[in-house]
Amino acid sequence: SQDNFMSAVFELSDNEVLFEREKSRFLASLASLDRAIPLPRRTQNRSDTEIAPTDRFVNQADTDPSLPANRAWSARILERVPGSRLGISAVTDSVISTEDALNRVITAAATAGAEWGARSAEERTAILHRAGDSLSAHRAELLEVMASEAGKTIDQGDPEVSEAIDFAHYYAELARTLETVDGATFIPSRLTVVTPPWNFPVAIPAGSTLAALAAGSAVILKPAALSARCGAVLAEALWEGGVPREVLQLVQLSERDLGTQLISHPEVDRVILTGGYETAELFRSFRPDLPLLAETSGKNAIIVTPSADLDLAVKDVVSSAFGHAGQKCSAASLVILVGSVAHSARFANQLRDAVASLKVGYPTDPATQMGPLIEPANGKLLGALTTLGEGEAWMLAPKKLDSDGQLWSPGVRTGVRRGSAFHQTEYFGPVLGVMTAPTLDEAIAMQNETDFGLTAGIHSLDPAELGLWPDSVQAGNLYVNRGITGAIVQRQPFGGWKKSSDGTGT
């Protein structure tokens, strides 16, 4: 094409006409630099406090960090984090110290639950949509308290807020369906106790709480002690959105025995737990007939076969293993290298470089890619960060980067043996184990040889391998050629097999 400078490149030195043509084009291009740069078509601005009312379910867009207004908004959040006191007052007000006080809360919530369940589904739908709008309006506060209390970086916390908002609108719409089953009358539970974990201190309690509210049940929300402020700010946003305070009760218990009393109380109709399998078993011991819905532990692995895009595999392994410092029940704790990948210098170098290049720090630094542990490493996690098993070696040894043991560089250990402690144990921290298998069948067997079955992944471009794997792996959430953490509301359910779940529907 004559419009392309390449049409003249071989004759410029001899053809004055072509030279002048290209000279004119070049000078014209320089003149165009003075024109205003077109504004992006994306118009999201988190600083805009006007939240349009929502009456349907549409997945929320996460915050776009490429937009200057959003970066400024995020910077203001991070400036508030060091001195943040969000949620402290609500947590203080929610502390229960005696059996009598707890009994009064339970009785009041059960009474309110009967009234809440008697409301029409349309009433509950309208309230939950308003609650979702309130969560949208409080996105900044939720990110602030997650960074302040739980050490969550903005990039990890923002999708969590989106998920909480999605839960509100999704369950609001599902509430309508409870009155549309021909020949059946829905009878809701009066009272549900929600006991969420600290690692997803907004999305998980929001999902459990909003599901119960949509189904006509009152809720006693007992956030994890390590993220009590996050749970309090969440509850405040839901109250502001119109959820009655007597229907959603926030509690913190000063004594362990009060927890036993709460879970085993006869007026509690259902318990929703996200936490360790041992906690689910403990709850069962309190009350053997307890209607318990529990999503529990995971020991998750990604298989990488010789047909994989190795660069993409490394990217997804690293993000799955070290997002939120590996403190996710869905995190990749193991990578299983099949056949020639086990001896691939390219894969090993890429993995080492990718992990070593992660910027470790506190969430107040916007450049931080891996934040701190929720509390100083101890017990089995400290052992995983400092001690190798038989036949293992450090590709990258974790290093303690602060005085109290909350900030660690990520670690990668090679030579993890089949059936070893690292193969079988959930550690919940920033350490990845590398295993090898001669064949895909062997790799799948290793992936399945744990007590858990929450998430699992494979990286392969071979259609035959991708046809075999989903029918053979024992996990509730399967990921192909992508990371293994994260679930989008409505697009996929989330739950596990074996000791990764307890109760119908989990």
Describe what this molecule looks like in 3D.
There is one protein chain. With 506 residues, the protein is α/β, with parallel strands linked by helices. The protein folds into three domains: 5-34, no CATH class; 68-295, Aldehyde Dehydrogenase, Chain A, domain 1, CATH 3.40.605.10; 300-502, 3-Layer(aba) Sandwich (Aldehyde Dehydrogenase, Chain A, domain 2), CATH 3.40.309.10. The protein is built from 17 helices and 17 strands. The strands form four sheets. The protein has a seven-stranded mixed sheet. Strands 4-3-2-6-7-17 form a six-stranded mixed sheet, with helices on both faces. Helix 5 (121-137) packs antiparallel against helix 7 (154-177), helix 6 (139-150) packs antiparallel against helix 9 (228-240) and helix 7 (154-177) runs parallel beside helix 8.
Keywords:
single chain; 506 residues; alpha/beta; Aldehyde Dehydrogenase, Chain A, domain 1; Aldehyde Dehydrogenase, Chain A, domain 2; 7-stranded mixed beta sheet; 6-stranded mixed beta sheet; 17 helices; globular
